[in-house]
Amino acid sequence: MAIMADMNKEEIDTAGENSKLEVGETPILRSYKQDVANTMSDNIPETMSTLGWEEINRTQSRKDVQTEINSSKIFVIAILFLIGLGVGALGYVFLIHEAPPATIVRPTGNIKPSLITAEARTRISIESEDSDLLYRDIMDRINGAGLSLNHMEELIPENVLVDGESAVSISAENFIVSLGIKAPERLLRFIEKEFMFGIYALGETRAFLILKPLSFGPVFAELLSWETEIPETLYPLLTGKRLTKSEGTMWQDEIVKNIDVRVYKNKDGEYLIIYGFLPDKKLLVITSGLNTFNEVVLRSQASKPVEK
Q: Could you tell me the sign of the dihedral formed by the alpha carbons of 300, 272, 204, 239, in that order?
């Protein structure tokens, strides 16, 4: 009975509270079930929002990972492609491509200093046994020298040894004989091995030959006896041109640069051949053209640079 009395009391209190509502308002009846449902309803948006962002983040993470994987694949493929190109290139070089034939370099012994200073020094081979061919080759070199004004070039004839691997400079006698020049034998015996053959350009291009006499008397005597053949024999070699015979050409004595010389001139006064011994009689100069002779004499008197 006491319990029922308490329940009646609570109902009365509730009724009392409800009785406090304004007149005309409908009383609101609440229950535990309704409160729980309301609470869950209030929390659903927040819970769904949290779950949605987590799902978005997971999706983005998967995309990022996939992008990195794809980038790595592309990078690896690129590396493999470059490696393949390198292997292919090496295979072409070593297996397919034929290497160009190696150039055989023939060592040459130390070249002696020039008898006079020249702006250029060029080696030429005289391996051919055809003396006429060698003679014409020298003529062509003179015509095609293309030297600058007042420039001199030395031509250094070389011969190949029996082993076929090395080349050496030849002597003056061998040079003259290899060109088919029929000089007096006694003249060849009285000249040293060392000589110089060069080209000089001033107005026109002419060649010159410098010999070193062992004795002045025999060499000069042999030159005098050879004068009838010298113009036709040496003029083409020294000028690159064939000699045109004309009346009035003759040998005569002259003094040039205080040097006694023998000259072969035509009727127009052109110096076709000129030769002479330098004052010390140690050098014999044979050339064509007065300008070339004067330049050779001038350079022979100048101090030569020290060879390194």
A: negative
Which pLDDT score, from 0 to 100, does residue 63 have? 60
Whether residue 260 contacts residue 252, with contact meaning beta carbons closer than 8 Å, is answered with no
DSSP designation for 108: B
Per DSSP, the three-state class of 276 is strand
Please, are residues 251 and 262 in contact by the beta-carbon 8 Å criterion? yes
* SS3 state of residue 126: coil
Residue 134: other Cβ atoms inside 10 A: 20
Does 70 have pLDDT greater than 50?
Answer: yes
Other Cβ atoms closer than 10 A to 187: 20
Domain ranges of the chain: 37-99, 120-301
The reported pTM is 0.63
pLDDT for residue 59: 62
Buried b vs exposed e over 268-299: b needs ≥16 C-beta within 10 Å? eeebbbbbbbbeeeebbbbbbbbbbbbbbbeb
pLDDT > 50? residue 9: no
- What pLDDT is attached to residue 138? 92
What are the tokens at 226? 């050879």
Q: How far apart are CA 4 and CA 30, in angstroms?
A: 22
Query: Residue 254 is inside which H or E element, if any?
Result: strand 250-256
Q: What is the DSSP letter of 202?
A: E
Q: 283 — phi, psi (to 5°)?
A: -130, 135
Q: Return the closest-CA partner of residue 261 out of 300, 289, 232.
A: 289
* Separation of alpha carbons 235 and 227, rounded Å: 12
